[in-house]
């Protein structure tokens, strides 16, 4: 379970915008980071507010990458890499409540919480269909990108980091991107990364099979800088 006791369910339209921009923490974050984010996107030749962003996390490297594009036909461009302050658990997917694991797989941001116990937080859509089919009877939940530097399954960015990321994601959400994809990998799934993973879990066939399945989506993005639709086989593997 992630450390964030209060969740703010995403609302539609004006109610969502008014609720977010009336929160003191959001107002302060927006005032500090909106203009620097505009400058950052302008430097990369991208529109602001952003229209389409993608976040990609690597647990072993403690990194959260920001990618963006202006149109659905464009390739994503790498904009910035943030440092994840701490990672709990081991490499591998989250499979049950209380296992302290950070999930691995394909998710999206589905809640914006301006009143988090950890400053600001963005809820991820864990468990997804794959997690439900391949995990235990109680897969857990409450996985967030949040402030602070303490976690039992989330991605903590410290307060300054989450202020910028929250402002970024809220801008994009208000500009029309309903669901912001967040893909979480154990490490870069290139040749050296896969070799490392196989050595780390020698004999664990379940993890090996999961990672080889996850590798397909990683390779597609590396080659095309575009995302595939997230689809599943009947047994919960990613169809990509």
Automatic annotation (TrEMBL):
PROSITE patterns: LD_TPASE. The lineage of its organism: Bacteria, Pseudomonadati, Bacteroidota, Chitinophagia, Chitinophagales. This is L,D-TPase catalytic domain-containing protein. Residues 53-185 form the L,D-TPase catalytic domain. Pathway: Cell wall biogenesis; peptidoglycan biosynthesis. InterPro entries: LD_TPept_cat_dom (IPR005490), Transpep_catalytic_dom (IPR038063). Keywords: Cell shape, Cell wall biogenesis/degradation, Peptidoglycan synthesis, Transferase. The active site is at residues 146, 154.
């Amino acid at each position: 379970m992630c450390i964030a006791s209060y969740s703010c369910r995403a609302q539609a339209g004006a109610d969502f915008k008014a609720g977010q921009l009336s929160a003191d923490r959001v107002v302060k974050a927006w005032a500090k980071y909106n203009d620097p984010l505009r400058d950052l996107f302008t430097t990369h030749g991208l529109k602001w507010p952003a229209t389409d962003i993608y976040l990609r996390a690597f647990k072993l490297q403690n990194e959260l990458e920001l990618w963006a594009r202006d149109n659905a036909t464009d390739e994503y461009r790498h904009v910035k890499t943030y440092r994840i302050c701490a990672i709990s658990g081991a490499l591998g997917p989250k499979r049950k409540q209380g296992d302290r694991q950070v999930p691995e797989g394909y998710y999206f941001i589905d809640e914006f919480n301006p009143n988090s116990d950890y400053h600001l937080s963005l809820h991820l859509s864990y468990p997804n269909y794959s997690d439900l089919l391949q995990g235990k009877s109680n897969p857990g939940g409450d996985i967030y990108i949040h402030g602070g530097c303490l976690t039992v399954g989330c991605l903590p960015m410290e307060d300054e980091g989450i202020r910028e990321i929250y402002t970024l994601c809220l801008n994009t959400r208000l500009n029309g991107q309903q669901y912001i994809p967040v893909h979480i990998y154990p490490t870069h799934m290139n040749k050296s990364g896969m070799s490392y993973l196989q050595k780390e879990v020698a004999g664990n066939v379940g993890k090996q099979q999961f990672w080889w399945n996850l590798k397909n989506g990683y390779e597609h993005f590396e080659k095309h800088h575009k995302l595939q639709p997230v689809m599943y086989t009947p047994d919960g593997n990613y169809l990509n």
